[in-house]
Amino acid sequence: MKKLLLLILLAPMQVMLADPNGDALQSMNQARNILLLTDSYQSIDGQCACAAFDMFLRFQYPGRYVETLYFKEPSTDVPYPARNYSIGQTALKPDLIIAFDTTNPCQRSINKAFENVPIIRFGFYPSAVSLENPMVYDALPGLHFVNTRASSACELVYDFINARFPEKSIYQYIAMNLLYGILSKTRSLQNRNTNANTLRAVAQLMDCGANLKQLQQRLKNSRANRRR
């Protein structure tokens, strides 16, 4: 019964992916200084999502200043890193923040540090909600795009861009970052996070120029190097 109740309560958050009022696009249209960030543990998936969205914003909204804030030195695994980034703190005064794969404690810190700045959050993980308080994620300020069935932040970013920009807005470098993030989070499409929508996203990203075999080998080499 509890499981059924959780699934019912999760439904409004998944509907948020549709953004019927276009609030996310309006915020991006109006913003001049945009800050991207991911959680303090900085998964490869989160970093790839930041880097891909950095490229997407520069392509779709020329003239915007985009910066990525990391909590520590970013990984060299990301195929095409974010162009501008800072570590630990930023001098930028953003008028929009876009956060990827952030946990609730991190989100509260963001709210405190950037009070009154509009925030768009992308989240996919079941830990964003709980049986005790299933709407805790949705209760935080900001516009939320949450889909607990998504495999990764990069899959969620792909879905967001693909649904709102029907013309080809995902060029090769964006596709490479998104696919690498998906591969990293799903262990090369081998774990239980992988689903039919994930595979459709992978196929579309390959159509956009991402090289699956090359990225799988890159991920394999990276893991082998970390074990040494």
List keywords for this structure.
228 residues; alpha/beta; inorganic pyrophosphatase (n-terminal core); six-stranded parallel β-sheet; disordered N terminus
Which CATH top level class fits?
Alpha Beta
In CATH, the homologous superfamily goes by the name inorganic pyrophosphatase (n-terminal core)
Mean pLDDT metric: 82
- Main β-sheet description: 6 strands, parallel
Helical run tally: 9
Which stretches are poorly predicted, pLDDT < 50 over at least 5 residues?
A: 1-18, 127-139
Count the E strands: 6
Assign the CATH architecture. Alpha-Beta Complex
The secondary structure category is alpha/beta
The rounded Rg comes to 17 Å
Number of discrete domains: 1
Spatial strand arrangement across the major sheet? 3-2-1-4-5-6
Percent of residues in helices comes to: 40-55%
Net shape: globular
How widely separated are the two ends?
47 Å
Report the order of strands and helices. HHEHEEEHEHEHHHH
What's this, in brief?
The chain has 228 residues and is α/β, with parallel strands linked by helices.
